[in-house]
Amino acid sequence: MAIRSFELSTLVPGVPERAVDFLAKLDGHRGMHPYLHSADVVARGEDGRGVWADWVIVERPTVWGIPYSIRFPARMTRVSPTLLIGDVRAAPGCTLTTTTSATPTEAGTLVSEVTEVTAPAPLVGYMTRHARLAHTRTYGLLAGELNRLDAAASAPEEGAA
To answer: Which CATH number characterizes residue 29's domain?
Structure first.
C-alpha cells in the first residue's frame, strides 16, 4: 500500500460550526463536487469519537475520458462542533481519510482539510489526483454556497404579506 496526502483551506463567511454542518451533509455537495451523483444516509449513531452518519455515495468520474459509476460507503464523524473526520472506502484497498477543522478569524472562518489517500501503489496517484481535483473544486465553491444558503434562509417567503 502507498499513502499520499494533501491539504486545502479556504475562508468562508459565518461561524465555524455552520461550515462544518454543511460539510458533514454530503447530499448538499451535489453540483459542487464534480463527480458526486448522489449521497444517501443509511445509518446514524454515536461512538467514542463522536456523532456519525454512514452514507452511500455514487460518483461518476472518468478514465481516459470515459465516464463510469462507482458506489461506495463513507462515514462522516462529528468529533466536535468544529472538527469533522471522513472515512471513505472508495474501492477495495483504496481509502480516503479527511480531517476537517474550522477556526474563527477576524475575516470569517478558516476551513482546513487534510486528506490522506491509501491505495495500492499503481492506483495511489490516480486516487489522489481525483480526490484533490474534487475537493479543490468543492472548497473553491464553499464560500459562495454558504452565502447562497444564508441569503435563501433570510429571504421573505413568497406570498408573505
So the answer is: 3.30.530.20
